[in-house]
Amino acid sequence: MSEPAKKPTFIEDEGRQPESYSPKKKPEIVSMAQEASHRKTAVQPAPATIRAKDRNAVRIIELPACKMVTSGPISGEDAFAPGGALMRFHEWFTAFDKTRADAFYPRDFMWSPSPQKNSAVGEQGGFEWGYAVTDAPEDTGGFDVIDFPGGLYAVAISVDADGKDHNKVYSGIQDWVKKSGCFALEETDKRRSLGNITSPPAVMDIMGYSQMDLYFPIRIKGVDEA
Predict the structure, then answer these.
(1) Pairing mode of beta strands 66-70, 144-148
(2) What is the distance, to the nearest Å, from the Cα of residue 49 to the centroid of all Cα atoms in its chain?
(3) Closest by alpha carbon to 129, among 176, 161, 94, 169?
(4) Cα-Cα-Cα-Cα dihedral of 66, 70, 75, 77, to 10°?
(5) Is the dihedral of CA 207, 132, 93, 187 positive or negative?
(6) Alpha-carbon torsion, ordered 57, 102, 137, 151, to 10 deg
(7) pTM listed for this prediction
(8) What is the 3-state secondary structure (H, E, C) of the chain?
(9) Pick from 59, 80, 7: which is nearest to 215 by CA?
């Protein structure tokens, strides 16, 4: 995934839920957040078996439920070409990103959509690019808005555009989660593994490469699963 350096992050106010498109019914995203909260309190966590030397190998974070403007599932070599779908999305969110008051962390995330849900992508996986917003903007550049469920993720840094390093880090995250004792992998159609470049362009030029955070969706294991 060697796309131009970008600027994603999360939500400016994590305690505030995004507005729904339909004020007549309970927003779906609010329901998802409440269900996630209920699951967290209902589970009696299994004991952790994380070794001392592995404690700083992976970060555990929680992304909030939010709205995301998305490129939609894209496949093909021309997706990153000038005028291609992903480049048009990059141009849109880069311009929109300049309008936000905060500048904490990047807000864009890239993932491989589920082939079962996206026939346009097929078995090749392809890419989908999303940008987290507090409220769905009036002008989305013609791109769709989806409900992102958020949740727990295991995260580690890889080198962007280095397939060997990407695979090493990706496998390392999965292995860490499996050996943690208290977490389980949980990739679904709605919660895909994500990638997000964190290096500012100036730093990228100095280092000669970009750092990319890889996020793998996880859940807390119950005692009965230990």
Answers:
(1) antiparallel
(2) 26
(3) 94
(4) -120
(5) positive
(6) 20
(7) 0.77
(8) CCCCCCCCCCCCCCCCCCCCCCCCCCCHHHHHHHHHHHHHHHCCECCCCCCHHHCCCCEEEEECCEEEEECCCECCHHHHCCCCHHHHHHHHHHHHHCCCCCCCCCCEEEECCCCCCCCCCHHHCCEEEEEEECCCCCCCCCCEEEEECCEEEEEEEEECCCHHHHHHHHHHHHHHHHHHCCEEECCCCCCCCEEEECCCHHHHHHHCCCEEEEEEEEEECEHHHC
(9) 59
Convert the pLDDT of each residue in 132-151 to its tens digit: 998 889 999 999 999 999 99
Is residue 91 within 8 Å of 175, Cβ to Cβ? no
The tokens describing 102, both together, are 């905060």
Q: Which residue has the tokens 């100095």?
A: 206
Q: Which two tokens stand for residue 209?
A: 């490469």
Please report which confidence band the pLDDT of residue 103 belongs to, taking 50, 70 and 90 as the band edges. Answer: confident
- Residue 195 structure tokens: 């990638």
Which amino acid is located at 30 in the chain?
A: V
- Alpha carbons 58 and 37: distance in angstroms, whole number: 23
Confidence of residue 120 (pLDDT cuts 50, 70, 90): very low
Which residues, other chains included, contact 73 with Cβ-Cβ below 8 Å and sequence gap of 6+?
113, 118, 120, 121, 126, 127, 128
* Average per-residue pLDDT for the chain: 83
